Amino acid sequence: MFVLSLLLIVLTIVALIDVVGQPEPVVRNLPKIVWVLLIVFIPLIGVGLWFLLGKDWSNSRIKLPERRGRKQPRTSGSWGPGRSSSMPTTPSPSQPDRAVSSTEEQLAALEREIQAAEDAERIRKLELEMQRSDPPADDQPR
């Protein structure tokens, strides 16, 4: 029973620190003060609701490892893209997310590939039509 009480206290403290440390745009559904009051007065339910409904995980400071493309060299001990300590961990609104731009680049490359394949097929069909419509050079009168 002591372990569960200690775990609840630790989770409450972690949730309170997390709520207070989050910028206002990251907090969802309720104002920060309401989340703090929920966590303090109803600890188990408040903590659970905060982590499930209140926190915007996409803008969180906790980042999962990102997949690297083949062009980027792997640095030892690095889980994500190589970042120096002076760089922010969250992208600014003016910079597009690397995964989004990568996906858009992949879609654009795929569309170019499809268009090239369609063009090649069209050229092949036109060449076949030209061969059928033109009589062989030996049969033409001189």
The total strand number stands at 0
Structural class: mainly alpha
Task: Please tell me how large the radius of gyration is.
Answer: 30 Å
Oligomer: single chain
Continuous helix count: 4
How would you describe the shape?
Answer: rod-shaped
Proportion of residues in helical segments: 40-55%
Mean pLDDT: 76
Strand and helix order: HHHH
CA-to-CA gap between the ends? Answer: 107 Å
Beta-strand fraction estimate: under 5%
**Contiguous runs where pLDDT drops below 50 for at least 5 residues:** none
Describe the main β-sheet briefly. Answer: none
What does this structure look like?
55% of the residues lie in helices and 0% in strands. The chain contains 4 helices and no strands. Helix 1 packs antiparallel against helix 2, helix 1 packs across helix 3 and helix 2 packs antiparallel against helix 3. The chain is rod-shaped, with a radius of gyration of 30 Å. The protein starts with a helix and ends in a 9-residue tail after the last helix. The model has no long low-confidence stretch (mean pLDDT 76).
Descriptive labels:
142 residues, mainly alpha, single chain, 55% helix
Brief digest:
This protein has helices at residues 2-21, 32-41, 43-54, 98-133. The protein is mostly helical.
Record the SSE blueprint.
Layout: H1 2-21, H2 32-41, H3 43-54, H4 98-133
Helix pairs in contact: 1-2, 1-3, 2-3
